[in-house]
Design goal:
- This protein is α/β, with parallel strands linked by helices and about 100 residues long.
- The protein has one domain: Transcription Regulator spoIIAA.
- It has four helices and five strands.
- Strands 1, 2, 3, 4 and 5 form a five-stranded mixed beta sheet that branches.
- Helix 1 packs parallel to helix 2.
- The N and C termini lie far apart (about 25 Å).
Length: about 100
């Protein structure tokens, strides 16, 4: 189960993802997120309510990061210890901006 809440303010987009970003939910998240980036230069992902992220979710983050590198920036806020550990182990903490 996953919920996505988006709030845009000009060229800034804040996305709150709740639940699990896994093989079952990532395709829906990808459609939801990749389609709303046309005029966005600052993407913020709030993971305060994200319980788990799988390799499918990591691939989505990588795609988002590559896209935002072209036209702006992306950062991740409020990741829990489990998600942060996954970022560390996979090397994603070197690729992503995690605050």
């Amino acid at each position: 189960m996953m919920t996505i809440n988006k709030k845009s303010e000009g060229s800034k987009l804040l996305v709150k993802i709740e639940g699990r970003l896994d093989t079952n939910t990532t395709p829906d998240a990808e459609k939801e997120l990749m389609n709303g980036l046309e005029n966005i230069t600052e993407l913020t992902l709030d993971f305060a309510e994200l319980d788990y992220i799988s390799s499918a979710g990591l691939r989505l983050l990588l795609s988002l990061q590559k896209r935002m590198n072209v036209c702006g920036s992306m950062k991740i806020l409020n990741a829990n210890e489990i998600v942060k550990e996954i970022f560390e182990v996979t090397g994603f903490s070197d690729i992503l901006t995690v605050e």
